[in-house]
Amino acid sequence: MKVDVLLGLQWGDEGKGKVVDVLTPQYDVITRFQGGPNAGHTLEFDNFKHVLHNIPSGIFHNDKANIVGNGVVLDPITFKHEIDSLKEKGFDITKNLYISKKAHLILPTHRILDAASEASKGKTKIGSTLKGIGPTYMDKTGRNGLRVGDILHNFEEKYAALKEKHVKMLEMYDFEYNIEEFEKGLTEGIETLKSCIIIDSEHEINKHLKAGKTILAEGAQGTLLDIDFGSYPFVTSSNTICAGACTGMGVAPNKIGEVFGIFKAYCTRVGSGPFPTELFDETGEELRKAGHEFGATTGRPRRCGWIDLVALKYSVMINGVTQLIMTKGDVLSGFETIKAATAYKLPDGTITEEFPFELTDDVKPVYEEIKGWKEDLTGVKSEDEFPQALKDYIAYLEKQLEVPITIVSVGPDREQTIVRK
Ligand code: GDP
Ligand code: IMO
Ligand code: MG
User: Fold this and answer.
1) What is the DSSP pairing of strand 73-74 with strand 104-105?
2) Of 4, 21, 41, 208, which one is the catalytic site residue?
3) Known active-site residue 61
């Protein structure tokens, strides 16, 4: 058996959580392989809405195993909040949630370092979610980090030693902080984590494969936020791409099956950094309003713009996407024309169809215009009901990206999902 991977092709928030939840009945196991509580994955079904941060989006199907893989970074404090808020809503998820011993821990001082680093950058800040992601991955690659397995023995001593290092690092910054504030809930968080099923996830995942079980790996963030291939330095600190699924789970490359690449029918970005197709006008505002484009983790308004095919082609290439999923087509209803960037004009006047080494604010989009549609899509039940202009838009994107669009999402609810024939 192979692992199918579903990952974002833009700057995150493409609707990964929604679609993973929709696909879960077809799988036995759902995993997360990178990122941490910087992610906010929204699920809606039966008039219920929930945002998941660290927990895989298969969790509402209680016959499925959900595994937090070794590539994930886990904050015991926010993780406890996540579990508690699910309990309050009547979901006890502790029986079908498994956590890798090798997942790295986000500690209170990582969050302080994140905040201090961002504050010191001033105007050039990344726009981090301030969840401690960067400093935790820095400690991982710097070989200083603590992992979930470390909570089982002498955690307090290990944390005290690392905290001392962090406090010294914080002296570098002109940044005031109250460490006790950040540490609130740590002991309880560690206890909650201890009560969870902690596993050697690479062994478990490969055993599942051997036993013929089907696995879906859920990406977080998006390809344009990848540490190697995204719009560096305005990226996150993990490999969000398909290759990250191998290292983040301990699965060999030849065990990867379908690669689902998910994208919005337009484009959004939250946080700082270049965004060639960003709209600063009324159209951008209309997209934000119609698409309710506010961050699921931080509540920040998302920057909105037209679809960027230069970036999408790059993402399709880097990930080896075999099937495309388009979300939020419903949000485009009512636009006379839709634009798609098919090339970039670089600061020296060169026109290119390739995603450049450095994406700067001076990189300008070259657009093609496509006819829009007026019809409301949110109640559509099959692709036969799609307006002709939407069919044409889908055909246009498939031709440009050279991969079939097999799922079209027309609203936030589970039911608002069209699987194409
Ligand atoms: P993720 O991080 O990729 O899981 O995406 P988020 O949950 O952060 O953001 C996607 C937002 O769009 C959420 O509010 C979803 O409920 C919503 N959503 C997902 N698919 C659709 C869709 O097809 N149409 C509309 N209107 N909303 C959608
Ligand atoms: P999901 O999984 C959108 C962005 C932040 C910031 C940059 C670095 O919901 O799609 P970090 O906290 O990782 O140091 O922030 O990345 N970012 C996201 N944007 N969706 C996300 O996750 C994101 N996770 C991080 O806004 O620009
Ligand atoms: Mg999100």
Assistant:
1) parallel
2) 41
3) no
Termini Cα distance of the chain: 24
Of 252, 190, 223, whose CA–CA distance to 1 is shortest?
A: 252
The best mutation among 41, 124, 128 to test binding of ligand 2, ranked by most ligand atoms within 8 Å of the C-beta, falls on: 128
Pocket test for ligand 1, best of 5, 9, 10, 18 (most atoms within 8 A of CB): 18
For ligand 1, mutation pick of 5, 30, 38, 42 (most atoms within 8 Å of CB):
42
**pLDDT value of residue 296:** 79
Q: Which of 21, 25, 26, 29 is nearest to 213 (CA)?
A: 29
Q: How many CB atoms lie within 10 A of CB 219?
A: 34
pLDDT at res. 297: 79
- Asked if pLDDT for residue 421 goes beyond 90, the answer is no
Q: Are 137 and 238 in contact (CB under 8 A)?
A: yes
* Residue 71 to residue 183: CA distance in whole angstroms: 24
d(CA 378, CA 392): 18
User: Which tokens hold the place of 156?
Assistant: 């307090």
As a whole number, the mean pLDDT across the chain is 97
Residue 286 has what pLDDT?
96
- CA 337 and chain centroid, separation: 29
Confirm or reject: Cβ of 327 under 6 Å from ligand 1: yes
pLDDT 10s digits, 142-164: 999 999 999 999 999 999 999 99
Q: What is the pLDDT of residues 59-111, one digit of tens each?
A: 999 999 999 999 999 999 999 999 999 999 999 888 999 999 999 999 999 99
The reply to whether 203 belongs to the active site is no
For ligand 2, atom 11: residue with the closest CA: 128
Residues within a 6 A CB radius of ligand 2: 8, 11-13, 38-41, 126-129, 131, 133-134, 220-222, 225, 236, 270-271, 296
**Identity (one letter) of the amino acid at 99?**
I
Residue range 370-394: average pLDDT?
Answer: 97
Helix (H), strand (E) counts: the chain? 12, 20
Tell me the pLDDT tens digit for each residue of 271-288: 999 999 999 999 999 999
pLDDT band at residue 357 under the 50/70/90 scheme? very high
pLDDT at 9 over 90: yes
Q: Determine the pLDDT at residue 175.
A: 96
Amino acid of residue 311:
A
Give me ligand 1 centre to Cα 18, in Å. Answer: 7
